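Re: [ENG-882] Designed sequences occasionally contain unexpected residues at chain ends

Forwarding the minimal case from QA. Structure tokens:
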């Protein structure tokens, strides 16, 4: 979609004020609703975050228990990526540099905004060390949501985090401890879990960075 800025003539003959591309980008997206939803997730985490829910698992005779904040952190991380979807998605198939710039600003702004709201409310009840685990897992979920959004479309950004969450819950706990790749439950100072989370975030960023024209350049360079 190409951002076309039009000027409308006023009755007095003066041109109307032009609308910036980022404002046009935001008008077709539910950004404010997403921020409110992130705040609601934070409030729910402060209220019910430590409540444990039963989930199916390969250990503990087929059933285990996890705190609610692990699920709510995933939901809060997916929200800013879901906000990339708009009801004019079909018109945005042709990616231009103006659209790409607006997408970058939106991802950064919504990511920081949603994470800040969620963590601020969650901090009212969760221990600071637990908040470090929440932040670490948030980065991983956010990266996976971006990866799924780039490959499957922004409205399906939740699919990869949901699949990985099921895998973590079912196979992540064994022999009385969490596996090394269970980034959403390992201790706050676990270096392996931190590196894995940063790697997943980097994978999402690289997937977003790989624009169609960059992919074409890579294919051309490989042929040479």
């Amino acid at each position: 979609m190409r951002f076309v800025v039009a000027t409308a003539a006023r009755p007095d003959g003066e041109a109307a004020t032009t609308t910036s591309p980022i404002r046009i980008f935001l008008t077709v997206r539910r950004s404010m609703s997403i921020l409110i939803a992130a705040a609601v997730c934070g409030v729910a985490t402060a209220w019910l975050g430590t409540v444990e829910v039963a989930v199916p698992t390969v250990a503990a005779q087929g059933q285990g228990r996890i705190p609610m904040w692990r699920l709510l952190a995933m939901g809060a991380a997916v929200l800013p990526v879901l906000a990339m979807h708009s009801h004019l998605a079909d018109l945005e198939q042709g990616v231009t540099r103006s659209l790409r710039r607006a997408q970058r600003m939106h991802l950064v702004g919504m990511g920081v905004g949603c994470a800040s709201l969620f963590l601020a409310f969650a901090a009212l009840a969760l221990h600071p060390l637990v908040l470090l685990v929440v932040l670490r897992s948030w980065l991983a979920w956010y990266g996976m949501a971006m990866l799924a959004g780039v490959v499957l479309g922004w409205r399906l950004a939740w699919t990869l985090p949901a699949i990985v969450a099921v895998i973590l819950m079912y196979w992540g706990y064994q022999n009385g401890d969490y596996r090394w790749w269970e980034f959403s439950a390992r201790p706050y100072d676990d270096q392996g879990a931190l590196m894995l989370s940063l790697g997943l975030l980097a994978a999402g960023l690289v997937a977003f960075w790989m624009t169609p024209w960059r992919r074409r350049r890579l294919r051309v360079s490989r042929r040479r």
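QA comment: On inspection the terminal residues look reasonable. The CA atoms of residues 70 and 104 lie 27 Å apart. Proposing we downgrade this to a documentation issue.
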